[in-house]
Design goal:
The complex is a heterodimer of chains A (193) and B (292). By secondary structure, chain A is of the alpha+beta class. Chain A contains 5 helices and 8 strands, in the order H-E-E-E-H-H-E-E-H-E-E-H-E. Chain A has a 3-stranded antiparallel sheet. A 3-stranded mixed sheet of chain A has the order 6-7-8. By secondary structure, chain B is α+β, with helices and mostly antiparallel strands. Chain B starts with 5 loop residues before the first strand and ends with a helix. Classes of the chains: A alpha+beta (193), B alpha+beta (292). Chains A and B meet through helix 1, strand 3 and helix 2 of A and helix 1, helix 4, helix 5 and helix 7 of B.
């Protein structure tokens, strides 16, 4: 490179940076608004079940429940119309999305044979059939229809039921109906809040 | 609220076209009442949920505060300041997020045009696509709010949920607040509420209670009520935050001066070309040059 070329190069550099510096470069729009992530999301109302306050929830899922779409939950916030919480949620309630979508949740039924060290995945059909079979056998064998005085009691004392603590009142009512209808006496949940 | 409701942009001395030419936009504010806060961290969780931020689980640092500082994955943080009062332990809780200053230091320090901008409603927002990751905003902010991401080396901070505001909703943190320690509305309304609350606190014997809305940064879009306004440091907030002088100097003086320099040089060159003309190289000189 000789002196002349060097000067040309320098002049070119200064000119281009001057063009940019003087604002002669085309620019994009100032700022696009951030996209609102709930546009056209399916909104479902529910109650938080993690304590006895029972705050109202708005749950937003992708997909509009048309028949070819499997909806997936992607946002939960408080329900402002709920008389108890009026839109507010504690940290547990505000973070419910990660409860629902937790990778640590049980995703499918598993079976561990007596004495076996490993769990094996089974189908829902298998699981339901097996549970129903075992319950029926046990109930047929151990159902107490009457007490010593001959009064009908219909107690099934040899099986207990641990129900979900995270239920709404309505689901709790149905659970109670189901369990008592079978004659179960030992019904419990792990909820101790 | 429109995409052009921008009143201030970083990295440029150009005038921004008037956003409010056809309609007036009310300035908004969050009001944080530290005397009502229970430190439940609902705001912190709601923020990370809405903005899809999941900071890595940290380790215990001897405080209920977790993480210990804001980060690119944590835009709202509940700070637990432990204080002893009359030999009694108590916490000063601080809802830590962007203060949305009227005179934003981050914006003035920003080296890139339009990477940080202020809307007509007073919210200070950023455009990560334009951010070059120089980190000037992180050091300029008197509240140490913007943080660089270790993943993409760009700066991130609270946007006051500008996406929610544009859709007519309140910020996520405000909606979730159980005790009503966070409120949201026009800045005028929030200041009115704050004054009422402070008067109430005074009547209850908390005579040091006051409003934190520092004038050094032009007032903020997050107004706070402290039980002892004479000592905001007890809440982790600077007493007199100011827009740093080097920033204003660079933005308002140095950069225009630089531009003027470029234009001046071009003008001088032109004048020289007309008045003196080109420098004709002597034949023998040129021969000497090519021999090298």
């Amino acid at each position: 490179m000789n002196r002349r070329q060097f000067f040309k190069l320098c002049a070119g550099g200064v000119a281009t940076s001057a063009i940019a510096g003087l604002g002669l470069m085309p620019t994009l729009a100032f700022a696009a608004p951030r996209e609102f992530k709930l546009i056209r999301a399916k909104e479902t109302r529910n109650n938080c079940c993690y304590c006895s306050v029972g705050c109202g929830l708005l749950m937003y899922s992708r997909g509009d429940v048309s028949k070819n779409v499997e909806p997936s939950l992607f946002h939960i916030e408080g329900d402002a119309d709920h008389p108890v919480s009026r839109g507010a949620l504690c940290p547990k309630g505000a973070g419910l999305l990660d409860f629902v979508n937790s990778p640590n949740r049980l995703q499918y039924p598993e079976y561990r044979a007596p004495g076996a060290a490993t769990w094996q995945r089974i189908s829902w059909q298998e699981a339901f059939t097996r549970i129903a079979r075992l319950m029926k056998d046990d109930r047929d064998q151990n159902m107490i229809k009457t007490n010593a005085a001959g009064t009908p009691v219909n107690r099934w004392m040899t099986t207990g039921m641990l129900t979900a603590s995270a239920q709404s009142n309505e689901a709790g009512f149905l659970t109670q109906k189901f369990a008592r209808g079978l004659g179960l006496v030992a019904v419990d949940t792990q909820a101790r809040i | 609220m429109s995409a052009r409701d921008i009143i201030l942009r970083s990295g440029t001395s150009e005038l921004t076209p008037p956003a409010q030419a056809r309609h007036a936009v009310d300035k908004v504010a969050k009001l944080f009442d530290a005397t009502l806060c229970t430190g439940c961290k609902g705001c912190q969780v709601a923020c990370s949920e809405w903005n899809d931020l999941r900071a890595e689980v940290g380790t215990f640092q001897g405080s209920y505060q977790n993480p210990m500082d804001l980060s690119s994955e944590c835009w709202t943080l509940m700070q637990f300041h432990e204080v002893m009062d009359d030999n009694k332990f108590h916490w000063n809780f601080t809802h830590t997020a962007c203060m949305h200053c009227d005179e934003p230091s981050c914006l003035m320090a920003c080296s890139t045009e339009g990477a940080i901008f202020q809307r007509a409603d007073g919210t200070v927002d950023f455009d990560a696509d334009k951010c070059i990751g120089c980190g000037y905003c992180t050091t300029a902010c008197p509240f140490s709010v913007p943080k660089l991401s270790p993943k993409d080396h760009k700066a991130y901070k609270c946007t006051m949920c500008s996406d929610r505001l544009a859709a007519g909703l309140e910020p996520s943190c405000v909606k979730t607040c159980v005790t009503g320690a966070l409120k949201f509305g026009t800045r005028e309304d929030m200041l009115f509420l704050a004054e009422q609350r402070v008067a109430q606190l005074h009547a209850n014997g908390k005579t040091k209670a006051g409003i934190y809305n520092p004038a050094g940064v032009g007032g903020t879009g997050m107004i706070m009520i402290f039980e002892d306004i004479t000592n905001p440091e007890a809440y982790g907030m600077p007493k007199d935050p100011v827009v740093s002088k080097p920033n204003t100097l660079k933005q308002d003086w140095l950069k225009p001066l630089g531009t003027a320099g470029i234009i001046g040089m071009a003008g001088l060159a032109l004048v020289h070309r007309i008045a003196v003309g080109r420098n004709r190289v002597q034949e023998d000189e040129q021969n000497n040059g090519s021999e090298e």
